[in-house]
Write a structure and sequence with these properties.
By secondary structure, chain A is an alpha+beta fold. Chain A has helices at 2-18, 26-40, 85-100, 105-117, 119-122, 184-199; strands at residues 62-69, 77-79, 126-134, 149-159, 162-168, 178-181. In chain B, α5 (115-132) packs antiparallel against α6, α6 packs antiparallel against α8 (179-204) and α11 crosses α12 (261-281). The chains are: A alpha+beta, B mainly alpha. Chains A and B meet through α1, α3 and α4 of A and α1, α2, α5, α6 and α8 of B.
């Protein structure tokens, strides 16, 4: 029992050290991935717990999602909107997740998923997904009314079963029309075609 | 003479090893009262229902077929590729069935029905729900997962539970003190100290917790429950600094004070009040409540006053109608 406890405590220490936002060493990553992650991650115990509550950066601002049809002139859907409590906090985390992942492909993945999931809501398979942020109020100077700034924007649409994402705005990384997710049917067709090519003499 | 000189370091080393071993055994294996664990169980179950309830309104929007967080995306789409039971939900019916199971397990944990099985089900399903959409999970969710797994270890439904009532009616004994309760409570204490330390280290990496402005940034979020404090902070920079430094000081004292018998219960009691307050200030009230639930494990005395520890594995078993604890354990 003592050995099991000691082993778990080492795992806890390594998961905290290894999941820090500052990154972790190759040694810790290697040890964690071999000994601890396989059973701690599915149990949701492979955590860093390193939430500073605030760091005074723009990322601490209030994030929200805006979804609207690209073609039809309709009112945008804002999330969390009038929701409150933990339910609203989850929508804010989702929006913030895109804002924080803006520098890599994860943002595009998340935005595409949100866009696809909102096709029915927007009544259109061509939607604009925007992440808006209300910056933190400045401590110096007179109080100002909160203003929204755009952190991320993308157009998500489905064409011939394929999901496409085009990032909009100045910092766009995917400003060209790019098929992001092939539909399961077309992906199978493609695989089948490749198999057929591979099988041919 | 030489022999004596050489044996002194060896003796000191032996004493140190013995002291460390004794402390380890006392911390982990002295049978503990099962009531604090029952209190943690009830509170964690209630918090779990609140947190799981916050998923209910958008469950299909997020995880349903064609939902916003689909399973067939590229790597990084849903964070780490952690196995999730909710990933098996390819239809709305299965999704709601799994979610219903989670709620039922959390109700069972709260009521103390089903013993460890209910705790295992609640912990596994909760971890699965979080793994299905990591981007939606917050610090309170992480803490709840830890709490539920800690409950799996100990006899959490021995007291203040339907299981306990049923055992009493059948005339079966109830575990008043248990080694496993000690292990579970010890794990709760280790985790809350580790979480506090991790939060503290993360804070001290940023300037705002050093220059005393963190309290401002906490209150300045639009929609924050404490947004009104910004007006007060504008009027008094010292107050803002004081609040910031008080949070850090509390965390330092809390993480350290939990490990000394003289201060443990005091800091745990302070935690019952301070963590929810910090949670409200930080805009994470559920996280503050989760941290307070961790404190419950250290608030109450867990050992019988007349208990003398003999060896690992001893468990005090008492009859169903009495709260007294047998000081001499069987075996």
């Amino acid at each position: 029992m003592s050995v099991a406890l000691a082993f778990y405590l080492v795992g806890l220490a390594i998961s905290i050290a290894g999941n820090s936002v500052s990154g972790s060493s190759a040694l810790l990553r290697s040890v964690a991935s071999r000994l601890f992650v396989p059973w701690m991650a599915p149990a949701w115990l492979d955590l860093g717990f390193d939430d500073p509550l605030t760091s005074g950066t723009p990322e601490d601002g209030d994030h929200r999602l805006e979804l609207r049809s690209h073609t039809a002139a309709s009112d945008p859907i804002r999330l969390p909107g009038e929701l409150a409590g933990e339910r609203a906090a989850r929508w804010r985390r989702l929006a913030r997740g895109i804002a924080l992942a803006h520098a890599d492909d994860a943002a595009a993945g998340l935005a595409a998923g949100i866009g696809r999931g909102s096709f029915a809501r927007c009544g259109n398979e061509d939607v604009i997904v925007r992440v808006l942020r209300t910056p933190l109020a400045d401590r110096v100077g007179p109080p100002r009314p909160p203003r929204l700034e755009q952190v991320y924007a993308a157009r998500v649409r489905r064409v011939d079963g394929d999901l496409q994402l085009i990032e909009l705005g100045g910092g766009a990384r995917r400003s060209e029309l790019a098929p992001l997710l092939p539909s399961p049917v077309s992906a199978r067709d493609r695989d089948g075609a490749e198999d057929a090519v591979g099988a041919s003499p | 003479m030489t022999a004596i000189v050489q044996s002194q370091p060896a003796q000191a080393e032996g004493r140190l090893t013995e002291a460390v071993g004794r402390t380890w055994m006392r911390f982990w294996f002295t049978p503990a009262d099962t009531r604090p664990l029952a209190a943690v169980r009830i509170l964690a179950g209630l918090l779990g229902l609140v947190l799981a309830g916050s998923y209910a309104g958008d469950l299909e929007t997020w995880f349903g077929p064609g939902g916003m967080i689909p399973l067939d995306g590229p790597e990084g789409w849903v964070g780490t590729r952690v196995p999730s039971l909710f990933a098996l939900a390819r239809s709305t019916v299965i999704l709601w069935a799994l979610f219903g199971l989670l709620l039922a397990a959390l109700v069972a944990v709260t009521l103390g029905l089903g013993g460890r099985l209910a705790c295992v089900a609640a912990a596994a399903l909760w971890a699965s729900l979080l793994a299905r959409g990591p981007v939606l999970a917050g610090p309170a969710d992480d803490c709840l997962a830890v709490l539920l797994w800690c409950l799996v270890v100990g006899p959490a439904s021995a007291r203040w539970s339907i299981d306990g009532l049923l055992r009493g009616r059948r005339g079966l004994p109830t575990a008043g003190h248990s080694v496993w309760a000690r292990v579970a409570l010890g794990l709760v204490r280790v985790h809350v100290a580790a979480i506090t330390l991790a939060v503290l280290l993360a804070q001290l990496k940023g300037d705002s917790w050093w220059d005393g402005t963190a309290a401002w940034w906490l209150a300045a979020r639009p929609g924050s429950a404490t947004h009104g404090l910004t007006r007060v902070y504008r009027g008094s920079e010292y107050l803002m600094n004081l609040v910031t430094h008080a949070i850090v000081a509390f965390e330092v004292v809390f993480a350290g004070g939990l490990w000394f018998a003289a201060t443990r219960r005091l800091v745990a009691r302070a935690g019952l009040v301070a963590w929810p307050l910090i949670g409200v200030l930080a805009g994470e009230p559920c996280w503050g409540l989760a941290m307070a639930i961790f404190c419950v494990a250290a608030v109450f005395p867990t050992e019988a006053a007349d208990y003398t520890f003999h060896r690992y594995g001893t468990v005090g078993i008492q009859g169903p109608a009495t709260d007294t604890v047998s000081p001499r354990s069987p075996g």
